[in-house]
Specification:
The chain is mostly helical. The protein has helices at residues 7-17, 25-53, 57-90, 96-101, 106-139, 146-175, 181-203, 217-224, 233-247, 252-285, 303-317, 319-341; strands at 18-19, 22-23. The protein has one domain (22-292, 324-341). The chain is globular, with a radius of gyration of 24 Å. 27% of the residues are buried.
Length: 343
């Protein structure tokens, strides 16, 4: 990756911090306000977790469940914000024409956009999540290895979320012109809401406060002790730190997944960038798609073929139809899952 690609970003950041050689007073005020928010988050989290931890074994399990849900919620928020920022940085940035016309490989452009998107969208989460997870470590008297694990896990998980978001962004802009930002943001907002709904529904949080539905208390403890989101990178991070907080043991498999997943996402993003970026960027410069080729229609005497084609075209053109499709798909998934977990 060419270091000079970062020069504009570094200069812009420096000009935001320093104005005419002096520190920006607004940023200083916001910095003091941020310190106050961090202290408030730490105290509120410490009080809540300490209350649960002082209870019986069930209180400890519930506090760990809150710990896991916090990781998954932060991960989902990072994906959403990175997708919104990725549209602007990858496709609508004013310096794209200069960079693409220069002898710069697409993989280098992707690495630069990945790093800048990560810094722009994750810095606030990196700062304000530390006091929350630090409070858990203080309450549970975590050993000395908890803090290095936390320092590694937070940026690794945030980088995984950014890489995943850019992957989805590249595919979305390849399918839809980036100039239709309003529709894309609408899709992203809808997908984010459905994503959160599916996460919390599949985690079944109602089981945390409903032990009466289980025949024995042991079954209830087993149900709420299940790892949260074992198929998600945020779930891997949460389960890694939870295991260390409770047992003082490091799950090396989870640690490897947490550390290596950002690199896997970066490699996958580079491959998609080389294959889909130029067509997507061309579409973002044209109103109807740019590289669309019109083909002669095939004649058919069957009425249902023409009706099917008409309905398909109408569905693809009208963005309002997509929201209903996504919502119905989410409801189908949730209902099938509910039937699966019925006793």
């Amino acid at each position: 990756m060419l270091p000079r690609l970062f020069f504009p970003f570094i200069k812009i950041s420096r000009n935001r911090i320093f104005i005419n050689g002096r520190a920006n007073q607004k940023l200083l005020i916001l910095g003091f306000l941020g310190v106050g928010i961090c202290i408030a988050l730490y105290l509120a989290t410490w009080k809540t977790v300490h209350y649960f931890q002082s209870q019986n074994e069930l209180g400890i399990i519930l506090s760990m469940k809150i710990f896991q849900m916090a990781w998954i919620t932060i991960f989902a928020m990072l994906i959403f914000s990175s997708m919104i920022t990725g549209i602007s940085t990858l496709y609508l940035s004013h310096d794209n024409e200069c960079i693409i016309s220069s002898p710069v490989e697409l993989s280098e452009l992707y690495e630069m956009r990945l790093a800048t998107t990560f810094l722009n969208t994750s810095w606030m989460v990196l700062i304000f999540s530390v006091p929350i997870f630090a409070a858990f470590g203080v309450v549970f008297a975590a050993g000395p290895l908890y803090w290095p694990l936390l320092i590694v896990s937070i940026p690794a998980t945030a980088l995984t979320a950014t890489g995943s978001a850019l992957l989805v962004t590249i595919v979305l802009v390849y399918l839809f012109p980036a100039r239709r930002t309003k529709d894309i943001i609408f899709y992203l907002t809808l997908c984010f809401g459905i994503f959160l709904y599916l996460i919390f529904r599949l985690m079944r949080p109602e089981n945390l406060v409903n032990p009466e539905k289980y025949g024995q208390f042991v079954e209830y403890l087993s149900a709420v002790s299940n790892p949260a989101g074992p198929w998600m990178p945020a779930g891997w991070t949460a389960n890694l730190l939870t295991t260390y907080l409770l047992d003082r043991q490091i799950d090396w498999l989870l640690l490897g997944l947490v550390v290596l997943t950002p690199f896997v996402m970066a490699i996958a993003g580079q491959l998609l960038m080389e294959g889909l970026f130029i067509p997507g960027f061309s579409k973002s410069q044209e109103s109807f798609g740019g590289n669309r080729q019109f083909k002669p229609s095939r004649n058919s005497n069957k009425n249902w073929v023409w009706i099917f084609r008409k309905e398909t075209i109408s569905f693809l053109r009208d963005s309002k139809e997509w929201s209903q499709f996504f919502m119905i798909a989410a409801l189908v998934v949730v209902y099938l899952y509910n039937f699966k977990v019925l006793p």
